[in-house]
Amino acid sequence: MKITVAKSAGYCFGVSRAVNIVEELLDKGEKVCTLGPIIHNPQKVREFEARGVKTAETPEQADKNSILVIRAHGIPSQTEEKIKSLGLKYENATCPFVIKIHNIVLQHSKICDIILIAGDKSHPEVQGILGHCSSECHIFLNSDELDELLEKFPYIKEKSVCVVAQTTFDMTEWKKCLSKVKKLCTNAKIYDTICNATSVRQSEAEILASQSDLMLVIGGRHSSNTNKLFNICKSRCAETYLIETADELPVSAIKKSCSIGVTAGASTPASIIKEVLKTMSEEIKEKKVEEGEENFKELLEESLKTYNTDGRVKGIVVGITPTEVRVDVGRKQTGIVPLSELSSDPNAKTEDLVKIGDELDLKIMKTNDQEGTILLSKRIIDSQRGWDEIVKACEEKTVVTGIVTEVVKGGVVAVSNGVKVFIPQSLTGLKKGADISVLLKQEVSFYVIETTYQRRRAVGSIRAVEREESKKKAEAFWADAEVGKKYTGTVKSLTSYGAFVDIGGIDGMVHISELSWNRIKHPSEVVNVGDTIEVYIKALDQEKNKISLGYKKAEDNPWEILKNEYPVGTVCEVEIVGLTQFGAFARIINNIDGLIHVSQISNERIEKPQDVLSVGQKVNAKITAIDFDKKRISLSIKAANETAEEDA
Length: 648
What we know:
This protein has 17 helices and 32 strands. The protein is α/β, with parallel strands linked by helices.
């Protein structure tokens, strides 16, 4: 007899995540209440009930002293708002693939006239999706119902339409529906939201059923995906049975079969699958397979291999070496955790990670009865928990911290909660061409921007966090900024026309004319990159996000100095800096020149200033007039000489 167990049989990611959330809460000693059955498997639900888990049909029925867990199918947005308004503590165990559909319909309700949902309108997942639609919405179960819908509401064909599917919708039926939608609704935006695990499970079940004399589908009778599996298998194998437990096995039919296929719904625990296979073994243990092949017991053990290594155990650390940790798991075998299975950090050391007496949550990878050892992994348990946290962080757009452990082609790898997250070089926040190895062994904060469950791949962005922080700083700045306010800033860069200064998360520019009262050719004559300088706001333009800064001080203004120290009537030494036909220009103080008219150079008549003066010559002159508005000053050598004679 040949028994083949589908590789995809049993828990999918979403169900496994929901069950793990409940189990972890119970392990911590928390009181737990679920909003509806956590999954569509009565045996698992009863198991949880035995551990004190209660089921509430509405938020109002929930125990306020318990943590309410939202099941994998998801809930309408109104229900979640109700939970919050009641002040209930809760954990959202909604499958990430279902949340993706919620986001799609929520977004397209704003831009599309109609939302079409392929699914069972009575199923809680579909009810949850419906609760995120704000525009007109219709549900159809199959291609026939789609025909009726389009006939009843013909205007749908002319409207902008968004089409999604329940994650467990029948793939064959979906293809039929898509063909009609594409043909009749020319303005349709179609999203294939059937879970990849569902697609694989259905395809595998169809192939396995066509190759088997008898097909067993294990799962709850209220489970949508289990019933779809049954219908798919039934269409390929007449002898198909849907059972919930080993007690429902069709023993007589099994004994007559030569090849048996076994699959299970996404809500079926591995323990039930294992029990079904063991019970079959006991019922037909004397039946042999075809001559020359392995006996039934060996085949069964092969089928059970996945489930024998699926258990979790707790181990007490009893020994530590540089390469492995030995633990006591309460069995006759010695538990061994290699360093590679203790942590995802390649640079970690066993003695830094654990100490004698520590209790660890571990996963059995392999049992070797001959050597009396059990190969265990802590990394896998941490990775599963960590992966759930990473997925949650991606969904909720929360900041994650991790240590950069590797520099790889195109970026770096940061480890957070035991999960490796790839951060592309363009998203590290470093400048183009910068050496990314400076991030090695550094703690970094980042957003998880993408996760791929099948490949356990996550992508992060440090730059997104930095942009978010810059945005917050900018908002805080604009809320408090005003012309004249002073800041201590850091010079970030220089250009030919000015200096850019960071004044606390936002940049402003000091124009070259504002750097000095003297004329300069380049900002580097006054400041350098990295300098800390005192600046003040000269002008603000929030719409264009421009900030003009001032650097030179009013008290250093040469015209102010002139006003205070060189009033009209002052005789001072000046330097000739220019000569013309009508007079000479003389430098009084830096950046301020005055004019000595040719008539004011000497008591004697002269033809031109060059006859008695030369550039660079220093003479005494009297300030006879100042026009501050036009920035003009009149000087007289004659008047200075007359004053000197009077003084003498």
